[in-house]
Design brief:
The chain is built from 20 helices and 2 strands. It is an all-alpha fold. The longest helix is centred in the N-terminal third of the chain and has 41 residues.
Length: 459
Amino acid sequence: MNHDLRIVAAFKRELSDWRLWVARAVVIAVAIAAGLTVVAFTWMTDHALGLFRVARTAWWWLPLIVTPIITGAIVWVVRRHVPGAAGSGIPQVMAALDPRVDSSSRGLFVSLRLTLAKMALTSAGLLGGLSLGREGPSVQVAAGVMLAARRWLPQRSAVTEQGLLVAGGAAGIAAAFNTPLGGVMFAIEELSRSPEQRNSGLIIAAIVLAGLVAVSLFGNGTYFGVIQVPALDISLLGPGVLVALAGGIAGGLFSRLLITSLAGRSPDVASRWRARRPVLFAMACGLAVAVIGVATGGATFGSGYTYTRNLLEGAESTPVLHVALKFLATWLTAWSGVPGGIFAPALTIGASLGHDVATLTGSAHAPALIALGMAAFLAAATQAPLTAFIIVMEMVDGHAMVLSLMACALVASGLSRLISRPLYATLARAQLERLPERAATPAAVPVPEPGKGAPTGLH
């Protein structure tokens, strides 16, 4: 009887707290809005890249003129008007979650203004054929929408700004990849830093809901297609280990190169030129990306969705040195300072790496090795192995590769930690340098040295 009375009392408290229900309604409504915003962003980027492809097909030489001009124009706008929109967007959200950043300073990293700027400028980058993705920017885009919900929440609401940022950032990944589970794991691995942020059922519901909005509008497929994997056998072991090792080394070097270029204090001539003449430097990077793209017949232009999908379907052959050239084009794009992410290009590099290993070893498991390459390189570049594994897993038709993908991602990520510091945590620390001097205390984002207790993301 006493137990029944306690249950009734708990229900009464739940139903009588109007603040709780208002907060739930606001978070759910804004989560739907965040999902729709990412859907609109996806439409913008897809059409921008489609226009570039049409123009490049008609005039093969056009990127040599247009890409440098667009790159320089984007960097000019970013540096003059919206410095918080530069780069991926994930480090900005991580910086906004730092406990030293108060409400008045969060607008430096996440806001509706930055959301709109990110959408427009990332689309402009794909209109110029730059090697970038929209998944990282989607994190900042959706986080800006979710953070706007704070003005409608009742006072003393249990939903915090940090919770809204976690939900928004993860919802961006969920909606961008059509993988709600991947968004939840991204929140746990990369964004969450307190039990409240991890365990709130309302926050998890918001992440999943935003992902389901994208699924309902785009269907249940992913942008890279569905990987059809035949029955696996022991012959996959050798090539699979080779893919994990190669992906881990290449992804670790990629991460280290990005950190040195974007967050380091390198005294080389190129870095000094970038600091003194950022727009001219960006135009030079754009020209280099255009030259690489023209030389590869367009294989390195854009995010890589179409190329990877065709590779998986057997309708695309890997150009000579495609892994190295896509690697170089993506690094130059990021170094130029334009808004854009690395998730899609990293998956493309990994897919090409897996295809190369299948070709060199004569393996009959090319689709499986392509999937392993995607998971390995993304896990190594981001040092978020569970997120990488789940994103690729949701593209695989069947469960035969679940353990293989997980093992490959963990091995590649572990190898990457011996080479590079965590990419996003390091870039988030650099973002914190933009805080006013009154907040200039040691960053709360831990960034250990490579191989010395680097965090797995599950902290």
